[in-house]
Amino acid sequence: MIRDTTEVPLGAIMALLPQTQCRLCGFDGCRPYAQALRAGAGVNRCPPGGEFTRQALATLLGREARDWEDDRRPTARPQVAIDPKGCIGCARCLPVCPVDAIVGAPGLLHAVVASECTGCLLCLTPCPVDCIAVFVHADPPSDPWPDRSRAEARQARLRAYRKARRARTPRRRESVHADSDRKRREIREALEHARRVRGWQGTTPDRRIPPGESRQPRCEESVMSGHYPFGGKANRVTAFAFFEKNQLSLELQERYYRWWYDFAKATVENDPDLKATRLVDFQHYPFGQHAETNFHLHGYKWATALADLGAFIANVIFPKLSEDASHKLAHDHDAMMKALLAERAKAPREAAPDVGRYRHV
């Protein structure tokens, strides 16, 4: 026999109760009564369960099956019916029925589903016109409160659970801006991450940074700080201005372009996704749709090719680089530029003739 009833599973006790939620036991339903049984309540307080439930509970909990209490002794199960001539459609009986045995709507005639009614009589008190009649259920005299099958008990339990959940969960309209703060925070974090990856530090303070926080120390060789002659909205004019500023000859311009071409091709070959989709673009040298174009202003040749390659590097490769890889790339680029400038010092570019506003190289 079980002595410590607090260790008895609540589900085992619930399986023995009829799940009529009639409150004849003095509790609000079968579950509260099951919790009270584990705490020491008597097993003789459930008239719908009858003798079977009383004996089964006593065996499960290891207690004596005491006789029924006088006010809770099983009697002939009652049943209710609504008088159609007296019903005013107030719907006050609908929420109190624990098993949803009453059908109807406000302003319409109500009716009782006889097969679902458990005879709890909870609908009598709310009715303002006393149109609910009570009569004895037509059950065999030997078993006035027949044990309900497990399927019926489960259906009644689920209906009672849904009704209780609807009662304790108020309806509310979800605001379309309920997650606005979370979305703004995620967008801000994504932007900050992208800027850190690309090395962009900006020229003006970012007002979206919370007070007390600061950016990382600025790297003079930052990828997106303008150190490279492409990226962002840069075009071939930007690349040509870079070549003019450093006085690079066509040979040195091609060597500069070739350095970026080798870097991009190696990156694509080492990345499985890029290798499967973009390696075909590096089968021909130079890279880009303007690679083979012979421009009238001949100095624009490598500048235009670098603009095409630079757009691919800035938009595809730079977002994949870590912060350490970005710094290493910047330092390698600086070393490469020093080598080119040293070559320029040995063989300066021939000055182009000044022909007025426009000059052709």
Assembly status: single chain
Total number of strands: 4
Which residues sit in consecutive blocks of at least 5 with pLDDT less than 50? 140-144, 201-226
Spatial order of the strands in the main sheet? 1-4
Number of helices: 10
Structural class: mainly alpha
Proportion of β residues?
under 5%
Radius of gyration: 43 Å
What is the element string, with H for helices and E for strands? HHHEEEEHHHHHHH
Q: Which descriptor suits the 3D outline?
A: rod-shaped
Q: What is the helix content?
A: 40-55%
Average pLDDT taken over every residue: 76
Largest sheet: 2 strands, antiparallel
CA distance, first residue to last residue = 107 Å
Description:
With 361 residues, the chain is mostly helical. It is built from 10 helices and 4 strands; from the N terminus they run αααββββααααααα. The strands form 2 sheets. A two-stranded antiparallel sheet has the order 1-4. It has a two-stranded antiparallel ribbon with strand order 2-3. Strand 2 and strand 3 form a beta hairpin. The termini are far apart. About 9% of the residues have low confidence.
